[in-house]
Amino acid sequence: MSGVSGDGREAGRGPVLAAGVGARAGVTEGEVLALLRAALETAGRREPAVAVLATAEAKAGEAGIAGAAARLGVPLVTYTAAELAAVDVPHPSRTVLGAAGTPSVAEAAALLAAGPGGALLVPKSASSRATVAVARLPAAPGPQPPPHGPGPGPHTRTPRAPVPPGPAPARTRKAGLP
Question: Least CB-packed of 66, 76, 97, 142 within 10 Å?
Answer without folding.
Answer: 142
